[in-house]
Design goal:
Layout: H1 3-8, E1 16-18, H2 19-40, H3 56-78, E2 84-86, H4 90-112, H5 114-128, H6 134-155, H7 163-166
Antiparallel strand pairs: 1-2
Helix pairs in contact: 2-3, 4-5, 5-6
Length: 167
C-alpha cells in the first residue's frame, strides 16, 4: 500500500485525525502519567544507603518517559507538515483489539492474580498474532509466566498480585 492510498485518497475525511494534535495529546498524557508515578513512588520504603530501593526502576522509567515526551513535543512543534492519519482502518484493528485485551488482562490480574491471568493472556495474544500450534502456545505461555514468577517472586522477593479470588 502506497502513501497516497493510505493518506491521500480518503473519501470520508471525518475519520481522519491530525498527527500533530495526537502527538501533543499523547506527550501531555505521558508526562502526566510520569508525574503520577514519580509522586506515587515517594511512598515506597527506602532500603538503605547505596542500595536502590523499590522506587528506583519506576522512577528511571518515568524520567525516561518524560524525556521522550518532551522530545516528541519539540519535534512535533518543529515540523511544518501536518500529515493526516486515519484512526480506523484494517491495519489498526489489531492494535485496538490488543488494547482491549490488555485492559481485560489488567482486570483479570485484580480478580484472578498474575499467576493465572498471565498464561491465559499470553496464550490469547500468541494465537491472535498468528501462531496456531496450541500445544506450543500453552508451553510458551507457561514458560514465560514461570520465568516472570521466578525472577520477581523467588529471586527479587517482590510479591506478585494474587487477586481477590485467590486472596
Amino acid at each position: 500500500m502506497t502513501y497516497n492510498e493510505c493518506f491521500c485518497n480518503r473519501e470520508d475525511y471525518s475519520e481522519v485525525k491530525y498527527l500533530k494534535k495526537g502527538n501533543i495529546f499523547i506527550s501531555i498524557l505521558c508526562i502526566l502519567i510520569s508525574m503520577y508515578v514519580l509522586t506515587a513512588t515517594r511512598k515506597f520504603p527506602n532500603i538503605g544507603k547505596g542500595v536502590p530501593g523499590p522506587s528506583f526502576f519506576p522512577n528511571v522509567l518515568a524520567g525516561l518517559l518524560v524525556f521522550l515526551s518532551i522530545l516528541l513535543l519539540i519535534i512535533t512543534f518543529m515540523k511544518k507538515e501536518n500529515r493526516a492519519v486515519s484512526l480506523y482502518n484494517k491495519n489498526t484493528a489489531k492494535v485496538y483489539i490488543t488494547m482491549l485485551l490488555i485492559i481485560c488482562y489488567l482486570a483479570g490480574i485484580k480478580i484472578f492474580g498474575l499467576l493465572l491471568s498471565t498464561p491465559f493472556m499470553l496464550f490469547i495474544l500468541i494465537n491472535f498474532y498468528g501462531m496456531k500450534s496450541y500445544v506450543k502456545n500453552i508451553l510458551i505461555s507457561i514458560f514465560i509466566t514461570s520465568v516472570v514468577y521466578s525472577v520477581f517472586q523467588i529471586f527479587l522477593k517482590v510479591p506478585l498480585p494474587t487477586g481477590t479470588l485467590l486472596g
